[in-house]
Amino acid sequence: MEKQNHLDIYYQMVLIRRVEERAAELYQQGKIGGFLHLYIGQEAVSTGLVAARQPQDRIITAYRDHGVALNVGMSANVVIAELLGKATGSSKGKGGSMHMADVEKNFWGGHAIVGAHLPIAAGMALGDQYMESDGATICMFGDGATNIGFFHEGVNLSKVWNLPVLWVCENNQYGMGTTIERASAVSEIRQKAVGYGIPNERVDGMDVMAVRQATLKALEHIRNGNGPYFLEIMTYRFRGHSMGDPERYRESAEIKKWQENDPIGIYHAYLIKEKIATTKELDAIDEQVVEEVQAAVQFAESSPDPAPEALFEDVYAG
Amino acid sequence: MTETKRITMREAISQALWEEMERDEKVFIMGEEIGVWGGTYAVTKGFYDHFGPKRVRDTPIAEAAIIGGGVGAAMAGLRPVAELMTINFAFVAMDHIVNEAAKMRYMFGGQMSVPLVIRAVGGGGRQLGATHSQTPDVIFAHFPGLTVVAPGTPYDAKGLLKAAIRSNDPVMFIEHSTMYQTRGEVPVDEDYLVPIGTSKIQRPGRDVTIVTYAKGLDLSLKAADQLAKEGIEVEIVDLRTLRPLDMAPVLESFKRTNRAVVVEEGWRSFGVGSEVVSRIYEEAFDYVDAPIRRVAQTEVPLPYNQALEQMALPQVADVIAAVKEVL
Predict the structure, then answer these.
(1) What residue in A sits closest to B77 (Cα-Cα)?
(2) Which CATH number fits domain A3-304: 3.30.56.10, 3.40.50.300, 3.40.50.1240, 3.40.50.970?
(3) What ipTM was assigned to the predicted interfaces of this complex?
(4) Whether residue B225 has pLDDT greater than 70
(5) Which residues on chain B are in Cβ contact (under 8 Å) with A124?
């Protein structure tokens, strides 16, 4: 990896963190409606995945989607504008927090029904297989999604048809407020991939380099025509499930323990220790991100709401 | 004069699929038992041998995978025709129909399109019991973002299915399980299409307007023949598409006859009749000479016993009686 790649990964993780922090503030100010699910604590997962993909690889995720949006290169402007429901948002203000996408960047959303995008991901992978593209589809979902029927139908189909799809379970150990042990027959989620004959690996999701390495290996397996692969990435959300989560289901000591494993802190220390970057260089990125996010909030707040006629646009392609 | 050939509904649907697959490499079919078996209603017989397993895809018995997979393949640029062995299984895939296919374009600001056709066989009258005999067409017509097509003639079935496959939006294409042997004249020209969202007068008449579609058309045509012997001439408007609903021919006809009956196979409450009658009252109230009647299914789950099942389903005699009531 080039130094610039490392700096870019650091930049993306810090950008996600700062955007999410500002989003929380904007939500508390009543400027964001609906639900808001923050990605704070899980930044290394989407960042490591996207760092390993090629442009022809699709990525699709669930409703905790701001991280992927920023990783694929959507600007903080369009992300925050979408949160504020503005016409300049990535979905023209009609999708909101849970429905970010940028098809040009091969990011296919942003899906809010738990598990429903897994069969869709299998279908997109079928599209690539059918058209003989060497692209893979990276499909992210939470541990909670592995208990719904969609998961099993989608994962089974991917193996039956040998589809080029990388299943990525972001195991943050809670489906909303229910611990994995209370919801899933096996708490080691990758065992479910074993049941479908799909090669799999459990990965430390607080280490962005580990995520990237595992993803590179998995994508190589898929690109060689070997069919689907399954990663269980162990992570933790530092904030509640969504804004307004009373968090009665976990101890503050547990949260604190995980916060000591902050993925940004870990990567920062790695870059310094390996002499890839200097503290000064990383500080400069931190400052750049703060300015960028501030400018994005200004852009979003000064953007127009969708015009009334937008209500009727894009119901049908025609 | 256009050259035509008399074929069955089954042949019409089969030809539409075959011709579109020959025309466009991106069109493929997927579903339960459509390949090696040849389709449980034999619509896709011979397809597997001709087009091969890549384009004729037998699936697991997993409707969310069939429809969800179809949605994804359509988003990726293919033109899947996903088959539900019966429309009753759509409920297992309901999320992918109403939450995914119908909303994908709007929710992402027009970035995506879902050119997916869902072929689904519905209808009662074959003694399949309550879970396999439903006519739930209106449920799908409720959702903006979906297109719902339900033909009643081989001509319309072929032309509408071809139009559906070429459409850039998700289309529910609903076939009736007792109508595969229905015969009719169909153009020999492979490139005729029937535009989606157009109703059509299938039989002209001066006395009463019957508004119907699919199996209801079959009942209405038979009723019209008998009524004609008594000197009553009904005009039959076939909706053909439930969403978007083309009311223009209905209103035009009603303004001439001032009397109407709506005939559908589904349950009466919240049905096609409810919608059509509302629109007539909203848009042609001054032309109403008699209360509009609805002929529909009795509000019970369909029983297995043949006599009881037929009691619950609308019959030709019910259509005749309703027409006489409004006269």
Answers:
(1) A127
(2) 3.40.50.970
(3) 0.96
(4) yes
(5) 72-73, 75-76
